[in-house]
Design goal:
It is built from 7 helices and 13 strands. With 286 residues, the protein is of the alpha/beta class. Strands 5-7-8-9-10-11-12 form a 7-stranded mixed sheet, with helices on one face. A 6-stranded mixed sheet has the order 6-4-3-2-1-13. The longest helix is centred in the C-terminal third of the chain and has 26 residues, at 260-285. It is globular and about 75 Å long. The protein starts with a strand and ends with a helix.
Length: 286
């Protein structure tokens, strides 16, 4: 890559349940609009998972306003929000690209019972517990295009998808930057968000690509291609983390082969152990 990209990661610290109340939506939108105006000189602004607590089509006027504003300043804006596909009547946990960014992403690996109900035809409606709000999402297509910002490509993982190494590695080979957006509010004041951050560091190191992590209430961070935390925002601290990221191309052995060498080694060991056991049995029986 020729030059670094100036980035702003927004950590709004919105309450996990209260933000979905209709009366809170105008305040949230106003806050994001103000932050976008303040950071209009940045190359890239990122809002976290479900930053907008409304379906995409319900805030289309706001998104068009943000899109126009970002384009005026040649700024790329990436934002997490749910969206509804009217053609097949399905909901998705998505990331949308506005302004100088293009593309988008729909979450592929959903949280059981949190985002979908396994064997739904049997469980939903039988037990009240399974009628959880926001638990009717569909998984995005396995093969999706990458988000583009200028000449660079961004591979995305939403929330706990960052724990799955192989899907991200497959996209990372075509990407210059890795991105994960998350809403870790559900963890409360526990070790979960810290563990989530450490997992993201491993993904950056495996693929030798810089990783941007934007979260609702922490821990938002810039992570280098070596897996080092360059900057971060503490939990429960609303703010904007400014920094720069140097896009990086190329493949690592893990990006290229993922777990295949380890699996091959395990198979070889199993065959060797089986062969030795058989020879031992033949020797004992002779």
């Amino acid at each position: 890559a020729d030059s670094a990209i100036q980035v702003s990661l927004v950590q709004p610290d919105n309450p996990v349940l209260g933000k979905w109340q209709p009366e809170t939506l105008p305040r949230i939108l106003d806050n994001f609009h103000t932050l976008a105006e303040e950071k209009k000189g940045q190359d890239l602004i990122i809002w976290p998972e479900s930053a907008i607590p409304a379906m995409r089509h319900e805030v289309q006027n706001f998104l068009e306003q943000m899109d126009n504003q970002a384009r005026e300043h040649n700024t790329a804006l990436i934002a997490g929000m749910p969206e509804y596909n009217f053609n097949d009547q399905r909901y998705f946990n998505s990331v949308v690209a506005l302004g100088a960014a293009s593309g988008g992403y729909q979450k592929r690996r959903l949280v059981p019972f949190g985002e979908y109900v396994p064997v739904e035809q049997w469980l939903r409606g039988i037990i009240g517990f399974f009628d959880l709000p926001m638990s009717a999402f569909s998984a995005g297509e396995d093969q999706q295009g990458l988000i583009t910002v200028g000449a660079y490509k961004i591979a995305t993982a939403i929330c706990y998808e960052i724990a799955y190494a192989r899907p991200l590695a497959r996209d990372a080979g075509k990407a210059d930057i890795l991105l994960t957006v998350s809403n870790d509010t559900w963890f409360g004041d526990s070790f979960g968000p810290h563990q989530h951050l450490q997992i993201a560091r491993i993904r950056a190191l495996e693929n030798q690509k810089p990783l941007l992590r934007a979260t609702n209430d922490g821990i938002t961070a810039f992570i280098s291609a070596k897996g080092d935390i360059e900057k971060q925002l503490s939990r429960f601290a609303p703010g904007v983390l400014d920094g720069e990221v140097m896009p990086r191309s190329g493949l690592t052995p893990y990006t290229q082969w993922a777990d295949a060498p380890v699996l091959a080694l395990c198979v070889a060991i199993a065959l060797l152990v089986g062969l030795r056991s058989r020879r031992g049995a033949d020797f004992a029986g002779s």
